[in-house]
Each structure stands twice: as structure tokens, then as C-alpha cells.
Amino acid sequence: MKYSQCMLVAEFLKGLTSQTRVKILCYLGDKEKSVNEICDGIDEKQSYVSQQLKILYQKSYLKKKKIGTKVLYSIKNKRILEIFSDVVKYLDN
User: 93: pLDDT confidence band, cut at 50, 70 and 90?
Assistant: First the structure.
């Protein structure tokens, strides 16, 4: 692997250094959900979830869609869920 690719991997992984951000991605799965739904689903406060969603969006893990006053979040590339599954398999060995 080239140095530049290693740096991309490192930058990608930085966005996953928070358990809450990983929980959000896992909770979203292949669905679209609002901030309130995410808060209820992962049992975290709205202000904290909003901060984490902002980071996930800025790092391009998420996409968002505004419908009226509601913002729905979803995973930009579902491959992230496969990567999480691969990590679990790796850790089981």
C-alpha cells in the first residue's frame, strides 16, 4: 500500500474514534432516520447526537435530506457496514 493510501485510511478511521459515531452508523443501517429517532435509538441526548452527526456528515459517512423542517440522515456508502462486519470477524479470530 502506498503512503498516500495509508494516510487516506488513517483519515477515514479518525471519523470512527467515537463509540457514539459508530453506534449511529450501525443504528442507521440501511434506513433514513431523523435526529430524534437516532437519539431514541441509541439513547443519547439530542445536542450530543447532533454534534456527532455533523462530524459524520463532514467526513462524508452520511448524507442528509431535508423534508420540510425535518432532516433525515442515512449512510452515504453502505460498504461501511460490511467493513464493520469484517472488523468483528477479524476480532473473533
Answer: confident
pTM for the structure as a whole = 0.91
DSSP letter assigned to residue 68: T
Which pairs from 26-31 meet CB under 8 Å and 24+ separation?
A: 26/81, 26/84, 28/62, 28/73, 28/74, 28/75, 29/75, 29/81, 30/74, 30/75, 30/78, 30/81, 31/74
Range of the domain at 62: 3-92
Number of domains the chain contains:
1
CATH number of the structural domain spanning residue 44: 1.10.10.10
